[in-house]
Amino acid sequence: MAQYFVIHPETPQPRLIRQAAEIIRAGGVVVYPTDATYALGCLIGDKDALDRIRRIRGLDESHQLTLVCRDLSEIASYAKVGNAHYRLLKALTPGPYTFILPATKQVPRRVQHPKRKTIGIRVPDNAILQALLVELAEPLMSTTLQLPGEEHPMNDPYDMRQLLERQVDLIIDGAFGDLEPTTVVDLGDEVPQVVRVGKGDVARLGA
Question: Most buried of 29, 32, 142, 157 (most Cβ within 10 A)?
Fold first, then answer.
């Protein structure tokens, strides 16, 4: 049975953030809010937790996964970023964007895209998630909380509790979520390519 924490969206309670981090470090799968949709997450090196997330979402190994990072300096450990793309990342983070980049050797192969060897990277603008990332001192492996066959991501923490309390270890209620996912930008080539238009303003890609 999942634990259920109601955490203030602007001033997260430190005690609950510490407890959430402990659950994740112990191999837990967590449902948590972001600056876009709610997401499912676990530690990057936790194979069993990742397999559970894939089962919940109905994902195969070709689905591009995302690492949620605290800041730009943490990104450099997990993705290869050229100077031009670094300036773009600096202009658009934190915010509701996911960037597809070549993965470094720090990223386990099972987390990378199997053919392209890429990883999704994002720095969220969400107080709960930022506090959790600081407490963990490492990224969360993440994917949008959108169940198989559903047109939209889940956004009501009460519904998440009803449907997922036997499949995850923790649900963080940080108020209602957004239905619009992040804007996804592929930075594998010199010119950024928009893969999915979402909450992030595409016009800012010229920043």
Answer: 32
